Amino acid sequence: MGERFNADIIIIGEAFAEWAVGTSGFVSYRAQAEARAIDVHTGSIIAADGKEASAADLSEEIVGKRALREAGKALSEVFIPKLHTWIGGEEMRTTEVELFIRNIGFRDLTVFENALRRVQEVRTVKRLSYTDGVAHLALELTTISDAFADRLLVSPLGSFTLEIERDSPGRIELLCVPYPNNSR
Question: Of 65, 89, 145, 162, which is most buried by a Cβ count within 10 Å?
Fold first, then answer.
């Protein structure tokens, strides 16, 4: 199959989602994704793993896909470093970045943190403090992203925009500007 598509690696596997439980109008699904990355020239397995995830929503059509996406994301966190190393890159490293956000409401902060967790380069998000509209977060990022601060400006991460006040190695300071008519 690798020769047919002129590929050095093939990834094979399967994923499925199934109904788990439904309560109070919400539907919950569990998903499982399993895959193997195979070197087509030697037949050796570069990476193999399986991950599970769950999701809940009001819509049954959406929730199964969401659970599958989360399981796939968890699986990619295992595969990407191994594939990167296989193609001759150094072992992927992570870097810590402190993020300070001024003028952010607690509800917006929670939405922002959840949106950050869906960004591929973000490994972990930890809230260190929140006082008087100022949030202090610690992020662990993969070194794939050179322009993480710039990405924060263009990615829809909440009902507000962000302005960079300072950007230095290991530290980004942001100002949260709510959209007009957005109550925090």
Answer: 162
The CA angle 158-31-21, to the nearest 5 degrees, is 90
Bridge partners, residue 108, by sequence = none
What are the φ/ψ torsions at residue 85 (nearest 5 degrees)? Answer: -65, -40
3-state secondary structure of 123: strand
**Rounded Cα–Cα distance for residues 92 and 121 (Å):** 11
Bridge partner list, 126: 138
Which residues, other chains included, contact 25 with Cβ-Cβ below 8 Å and sequence gap of 6+?
58
Amino acid letter, 118: R
Q: Render pLDDT for 108-137 as a digit per residue (tens, 0 to 9).
A: 999 899 888 887 778 899 999 999 999 999
Contact (CB, 8 A) for 35 and 49: yes
The answer to whether 33 and 75 have CB atoms below 8 angstroms apart is: yes
Nearest in space to 152 (alpha carbons), one of 110, 106, 183, 121: 121
Alpha-carbon distance 48 to 12, whole Å? 10
Instruction: Flag whether the pTM goes above 0.90.
Output: no
What is the C-alpha to C-alpha distance for residues 107 and 48, in angstroms, rounded to an integer? Answer: 38
Rounded to whole angstroms, how far apart are CA atoms 40 and 1?
A: 8
Token pair for 74? 């968890």
Q: How many CB atoms lie within 10 A of CB 31?
A: 25
